[in-house]
Specification:
The structure holds two protein chains of two kinds. Chain A contains eleven helices and nine strands. Chain A is of the alpha/beta class. In chain A, strands 1-8-9-5-4-2-3 form a seven-stranded parallel sheet, sandwiched between helices. In chain A, strands 6-7 form a two-stranded antiparallel ribbon. In chain A, β8, α8 and β9 form a beta-alpha-beta unit. In chain A, α1 packs across α2 and α1 packs antiparallel against α10. The longest helix of chain A is centred in the first third of the chain and has 26 residues. The relative contact order of chain A is 0.19. By secondary structure, chain B is of the alpha/beta class. Helix content of chain B is 32%, strand content 21%. In chain B, strands 11-10-12-13-15-14-20 form a seven-stranded mixed sheet, sandwiched between helices. In chain B, α5 runs parallel beside α6, α11 packs across α15 and α12 crosses α13. The longest helix of chain B has 16 residues.
């Protein structure tokens, strides 16, 4: 399965043929975009504190992958996680309220942007230490194999995390024990401020499993249908008992690493070029209009509805009370 | 001239072993590198090779003999021209009947693996105290007691819980086919199979995280670290993932995982392999930490740990693995996490310890008794939650306290106990709290320096006398 080429072209796979799915792709990506823009705004107003890592630019990755999952499959990622939560079906109000540190947030205000979970939606976090989610996701896959429940675990991490040792410890065990896990490397080309070229001896991340015999594929992570098609194949591979597989998603983040990052390590022109030529949402919208799946009016209406959802989430998140003082001592132990 | 072949030391903690099998006969020629015998240590069965050439003269210790001390002559080797001198077989320990019977015999004695010259009488006394301590707590009157090693108690705890709950599994380095680096998981692979007793690669950071993930996924992993020294590679997963996730998730994510293995110095393995992590883990909210000494506590606490919905750190001790103590024969023997035990009542001074140092305070108490000082002894058993209340109540009675541990002195368990006692029993104290700890240095290799670095009974005696203002 190893290949240097993007796995799918525009109309490959099952996704493009289904107008309802195409509409969902577009809406889900736009929800993440508008949600993140609002989060950035609230951060600027001092309503969100600490670290806040926005997913703007990478939306196609998680939306395409999540649409390829089945009931009972699991998801885990690092701290750039708002998009993953929304794509897992978590309520934007609960996510935003966690960002503002309120009692109505998914973690009752005790986790914040980087540490959110939903057992109901099989979203296992939301982990703040670069790379730490990789053995944990591998362990989730281990539990699925142990229970023989047929579930697959999507374990997301970035090009930065791909240089952590525990990632390779995980690769080894996952392949040794043929665990049903898909490793999705979101290569947005910068580990905080250090470019892939400056940090990685092997910059083709889909090859990073080669010494363990784990197959890998590189995917155009700015094309939601390509992601979905690759995701379907990879998830089927893992589910069928063949062991782990790696998908390298070539993507890009428009904003800084976190809200406090001025992003001096790249030019304004570089970002602008990606926005104009490869934006996962704008280009997909145009494609759907060309195909006749959606009209311009449809796109406008979707945007309007999403803005309303996001504004309601922001209102909820700013009006909800902070956790009560006695919550300080709850949830330490079961 | 005949030379003697001596019983070899085949592990850092080995003091004695069993001649499992002789592979040579009297009169047989041997060359260097030939396998002479199979010798069973506390950890494994090892092959014992000839170093010198010659002819086997007399086999002094027959095969099947247990408890053969290191450096005891086990055979003679004749050089060319030797006439095969007569040598009486050592009227040794015993040759035993059936294998099982021999084992049972062996269990009856308290094995002292850290020789360090102790009066033989003490062993029996210590055992008596331990038995008395057991009988006044969770065990119903009249319960039969079976004497087993701490090693066996830990294995029994895992086996019982694995029979009871299919989601419990054991993973770690050498836990399956090798039967455990310290033989703790002996027999588990055979009973539960390779899906539940899993040999991992040498990958502590990875398998600790994998264990956390498996716990999030609804299983109850027991993750063995060959020793806790190696868990430093996994520290991030233990603290940031296992301990904190429940809190960070607003109570959604439980992490019912047990991390266990031998903690603290073994013998002569120097700085990187000789460290006591008691206070490290006791510091962390979201963890529970236990450090038992007696076999019954090892069993009961490990069973409680496996059933606990939280991550539990089980600090065992390699030297204590081979010690034998009575364990109640009960269907369900669970020891609650977070409760200390008063193992000897006394009125003059409170001595507090956990893990292997409980052996030291037992020894110190006898020496003190000989000088007319009546010590009360507390085995903490758990370090988080720390049962400071039991210690405080004792100090209110004795008015003096000496804490004992192998860890370093700064921010130690003793530091915390001293703070608690000063805060809650200040007016009862007749002397400042005293701390006996490992010395504030990395562990040296040289035998004499290692001995100096570790706490020993005479230091405890001296400290107890000092707080009693006796000289």
């Amino acid at each position: 399965m190893a290949s240097a080429q993007p796995a799918a072209t525009i109309d490959s796979g099952s996704s493009a043929a289904d107008p309802a799915l195409a509409r969902k792709f577009y809406s889900d990506m736009l929800l993440i975009r508008r949600f993140e823009e609002k989060a950035g705004q609230l951060y600027g107003m001092g309503l969100i504190g600490g670290f806040c890592h926005l997913y703007i630019g990478q939306e196609a990755v998680v939306v395409g992958m999540q649409a390829a999952l089945k009931e009972g499959d699991q998801v885990i990622t690092a701290y750039r996680d708002h998009g993953h939560m929304l794509a897992s079906g978590m309520n934007p109000r609960g996510v935003m309220a966690e960002l503002t540190g309120r009692e109505t947030g998914y973690s009752k205000g005790k986790g914040g942007s980087m540490h959110m979970f939903s057992r109901e939606k099989n979203f296992f976090g939301g982990h703040g230490i670069v790379g730490a989610q990789v053995p944990i996701g591998t362990g989730l896959a281990f539990s699925n194999k142990y229970k023989k429940n047929g579930a697959v675990t999507l374990t997301y991490f970035g090009d930065g995390a791909a240089n952590q040792g525990q990632v390779y410890e995980s690769f080894n065990m996952a392949q040794l024990w043929k665990l049903p896990v898909v490793y999705i490397i979101e290569n947005n080309q910068y580990a905080m401020g250090t470019s892939v070229e400056r940090s990685s001896a092997e910059t083709h991340f889909f090859r990073r499993g080669a010494s363990f015999g784990i197959p890998g594929e590189q995917v155009d992570g700015m094309d939601v249908e390509a992601v979905h098609a690759a995701g379907l194949k990879a998830i089927e591979f893992a589910r069928s008992g063949k062991g782990p597989i790696i998908l390298e998603m070539k993507t890009y983040r428009y904003r800084g690493h976190s809200m406090s990052d001025p992003a001096k390590y790249r030019t304004r022109e570089e970002v602008q070029e990606v926005r104009e030529k490869r934006d996962p949402i704008d280009h997909y919208g145009q494609r759907l209009v060309q195909r006749g799946t959606l009209s311009d009016a449809d796109l406008k209406q979707i945007d309007k509805d999403i803005r309303a959802t996001v504004n309601a989430a922001a209102e909820f998140a700013t009006e909800s009370p902070e956790p009560k003082p006695d919550e300080l001592y709850t949830d330490v132990l079961a | 001239m005949a030379t003697q072949i001596l019983m070899p030391a085949l592990s850092p903690t080995m003091e004695e072993g069993k001649i499992a099998k002789w592979l040579v006969k009297e009169g047989q020629d041997v060359h260097s590198g030939d396998i002479l015998a199979e010798i069973e240590t506390d950890k494994a069965t090892m092959e014992f090779e000839a170093v010198d050439e010659g002819k086997i003269g007399k086999i002094l210790v027959p095969e099947g003999t247990e408890g053969v001390k290191v450096n005891q002559p086990i055979a003679t080797l004749l050089a060319d021209g030797d006439a095969g001198e007569e040598a009486e077989p050592v009227a040794a320990t015993q040759t035993g009947g059936g294998r099982e019977e021999t084992k049972r015999e062996a269990r009856k004695e308290v094995r002292e693996e850290e020789t360090r010259a102790r009066p033989a009488a003490r062993k029996a006394d210590a055992l008596e105290i331990a038995e008395a301590a057991l009988s006044d707590t969770e065990v119903p009157a009249g319960t039969e007691m079976v004497t087993i090693t701490v090693r066996e108690a830990l294995r029994d705890a895992m086996a019982e819980e694995m029979r009871r709950d299919k989601t419990v599994f054991l993973m770690g380095e050498e836990v399956a086919q090798y039967q455990g680096a310290y033989k703790v998981s002996q027999g588990l692979l055979e009973e539960f199979g390779p899906e539940r007793v899993i040999d991992t690669p040498i990958t502590e950071h990875g398998f600790a995280g994998l264990g956390v993930g498996a716990a999030f996924g609804g299983l109850r992993p027991i993750v063995e670290f060959m020793t806790w020294n190696f868990a430093m590679q996994a520290m991030d997963q233990l603290i940031n993932s296992a301990a904190k996730t429940r809190y960070m998730s607003g109570g959604q994510m439980n992490c019912p995982v047990v991390f266990r293995g031998p903690n603290g110095p073994a013998a002569r393995v120097a700085a990187q392999h000789s460290q006591d992590y008691s206070s490290w883990y006791a510091h962390v909210p979201g963890l529970k930490v236990v450090a038992p000494y007696f076999a019954a506590d090892a069993k009961g606490l490990l069973k409680s740990a496996i059933r606990d919905p939280n991550p539990v750190i089980v600090l065992e001790n390699e030297i204590v693995y081979g010690r034998s103590f009575p364990v109640p024969k009960m269907e369900e023997y669970l020891v609650p996490i977070g409760k200390a035990r008063v193992i000897r009542r006394g009125k003059d001074v409170t001595l507090v310890a956990h893990s292997i140092c409980v052996g030291l305070i037992l020894e110190a108490a006898e020496k003190l008794a000989a000088e007319g000082i009546d010590a009360e002894l507390i085995d903490l058993r758990s370090l988080r939650p720390l049962d400071a209340q039991t210690v405080i109540e004792s100090v209110k009675k004795t008015n003096r306290i000496v804490t004992v541990e192998q860890g370093w002195p700064i921010c130690s368990i003793g530091s915390e106990l001293a703070a608690q006692v000063v805060e809650h029993a200040f007016d009862y104290l007749d002397a400042p709290p005293a701390k006996i700890t490992g010395k504030d240095v990395p562990m040296p290799y040289a035998a004499n320096l290692e001995k100096l670095a570790l706490p020993h009974a005479d230091e405890i005696v001296a400290a107890a006398k000092a707080v009693c203002y006796r000289s």
